[in-house]
Amino acid sequence: MSKTVARWRGNGFHVLLYTSMTVIRRSFAACALLCLGGWLAACVPTKTVRVEDVRVTPVTAADIQKMVRDSGAKAVLVNMWATWCGPCRQEFPGLVRVAHKYQGQGLKVLLVSADTETDLPAVKKFLAEHGVEFPAYLKAEKDQEFIDGMGKQWTGALPATFLFDGTGKLRDFWEGETTFSVFEQKVVEALGRQTKSTGGTP
């Protein structure tokens, strides 16, 4: 299987590219469709956000887990990313689009940057360019402590996405870049599951 991720090591991050010729041949026909989907997501107008209005708070894994439990949302999506991570940047427009589309339906999105504190200006600039007006976060503890604190299923690869239900239970997890349609499908499933379990209406 082919996937592109940036892997988190004790001495920092680097991008790993896993590719096989078989996968390339089988994926060639689908490539145009994926590119079109990414292009359409990128073409959706973003909100205008000034860099000085972007809010980025340092957090530990424990802080994130607490925010998930205390969110009061029907579903919480936590995305680990970095400004220098190509796959992260590629999926970001679709991710922000999902956040804006479903925030009024019970979704809360926590964007957690793995950049260093010295990269904070670049982080804020990137978030502003993508119309992120809701609070965002910056990793504030040692790499391995942060990875372990988020869960044993995470290898440390970026991007990484955790999807929790309203009770704080992890419902889905994946590493590597994905598309707007996949984000949306998983979010809708999580929101629907929570509505059904509480006996409410969508």
Structure, described:
- The structure is a single chain.
- This protein has 202 residues and is an alpha/beta fold.
- The chain has a single domain, classed as 3-Layer(aba) Sandwich (Glutaredoxin).
- The protein is 43% helix and 25% strand.
- The protein contains 6 helices and 9 strands, in the order E-E-H-E-H-E-H-E-H-E-H-E-E-E-H.
- Strand 1 (3-9) and strand 2 form a beta hairpin.
- 35% of the residues are buried.
- Mean pLDDT is 82; it is low at 18-43 and 195-202.
Distance between the termini: 36 Å
Strand order of the largest sheet: 3-6-5-4-8-9
Helix content: 40-55%
Give the helices and strands as they follow along the chain.
EEHEHEHEHEHEEEH
- Tally of structural domains: 1
What is the count of helical runs?
A: 6
Radius of gyration over C-alpha positions, nearest whole angstrom = 17 Å
Write the CATH fold name. Glutaredoxin
Please report the first level of CATH classification, the CATH class: Alpha Beta
Strand content: 15-25%
Uncertain residue ranges: 18-43, 195-202
